[in-house]
Amino acid sequence: TRFVDAVVLSSKRPLLLLAKDPMMAVLCVYTGLILGIVYMFFVAFPLIYREKVYHFTAAETACCYLGILVGTLLMTATSPRIQKRYAARVQANNNVSVPEYRFEALFYGSILCPVGLMIFAWTTYPHVHWIGSVIGNAIFGAGAAYIFAGILGYTVDAYRLYAASGMAANSFVRSIMSGVLPL
Known about the structure:
The protein has helices at about 1-20, 20-50, 60-65, 65-90, 105-120, 130-160, 165-180.
């Protein structure tokens, strides 16, 4: 019975976090929206690059996904710098960590994602070179990676003892939204 109680509690806690903590709910929905948009790219790319606008081959269409990868890789190159600024903020605060210090990456992502989406949307026309939309994908990819880094870092810092439950809540909402949005 102890095992069953532990399983029930472990299953219930992420849902309670979502229901009773508005910050957790908002952050989970935000990461779900971003991941849903990433998955919508997977649906839109063949339509845009192969069928409707640019008439690429299957291999050329597949190469357009590299924009998101390049953006993510560029973001990871800046992660050590963000981590150093986080450590400096903690040190300036008498070595007391505040979970909101992790939001620096989220700030960058919240700017880059809409900018990348706007570039993508404004450049998917036959008379505009295809590299414009791939650059938009790269900017969006960097922004998405920043958002995930900021929100997941905050979740671990804010819910230390219950970090696994916070991550489970985020994964639950993210998975549902990313599965439903492309439909």
